[in-house]
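thread: overnight batch results

M.L. [08:02]
morning all. the overnight job finished for the chain we discussed friday. pasting input first so we're all looking at the same thing
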Amino acid sequence: MAAAAVSDHSSADDTCFDNPFEYKKSVQSIVDSSNLKHLPSKYNLELGGGNDTSATSSESLPVIDYSALTSTDPNRRSEAVAEFARACADWGVFFLVNHGLPEELIASLFATVREFFNLPDDEKKQYEGKSTSSPIVCGNFNVKTTSNQTFTLWRDFLKIHVHPEFHCPSKPQPLREIIEEYAGRVRKIVREMVGAIAESMELDRDYVEEALELKSSHQKLGASFYPPCPQPEKTLGLPPHNDTGLFTILAVRDGEPGLQTNRQGQWFEVTPPPNFVIVNVGEHLEIFSNGRCKSDLHRVVVNKERERLAVAVGNGTGSDVMVGPAARLVERDGRANYRSMNYREYMVSQYTRAYNGMSMLDEQKIHY
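M.L. [08:03]
and the structure it wrote out:
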């Protein structure tokens, strides 16, 4: 689901909600402990009597060359900025190539994250989330529907807040150094992309960075492990959702399939070529741009044959920013198309609200 609020302390409100992070047993341990033939009932997500996970192969997903986006050649960069803006407006998800994230660093990240998921459940359980604002959360994720049914997603996950304050599990030992370097490199990429999108909207880059408080931007890393599933048609790794924040950078191992994006009511597979990463436009960028950028609705499906490992880094505004459409864009457009909302409160609401198929973003839209 969407990201949790960044804070070392629970807000006054989030302690009254049911905790979605209750950690009973890892999915991996269930798969390993028996010759599993059928999906345990708690993981059955057949909402409304069906769970169609079919999708069309997408060969037209935009590819953005980060080296062109940061080029000192004004013509090359201008073309890249225009192409980047089209990708954010049309699809809301794209592949990023020549991003400067070393292959060795990504390989080390996946190896150490996999080591973490291999730890015994009793070691990982110390990171069970106590509230929506816990800085490190590991375990299961429970989805509550508007009919008060609760389902557990078919995945094990680790979420940690890495900026402006850095947190990390103590094991495996190399994890801290690897994540710190990876997260820092991703922040630099995101800051450049925010600058490029500001340029495309004819907004001053310094104005945008100040308005969004990018120096203290809320950044979290989420690792998701999806073991093979005996009945993948009855469950999901992640239900349809939009990401919060500005941009999410997603790396998957060996270009593994599973991520699907929805465009104009049709689901498309998002499977990156080697050395590409996936970028999702977040809800808060759509709000800030007054609708010029579109946050994509996406989901994760699972399969019978093999496991899937993915590492996403979500990048938001400062945690106490009131995020609304940029004043200069509202003036230009003649109206605001979205309501403003405190970033921290938005994040808490994403975790604790009942899943009804609508995103928080839908509820923030103003219909004239």
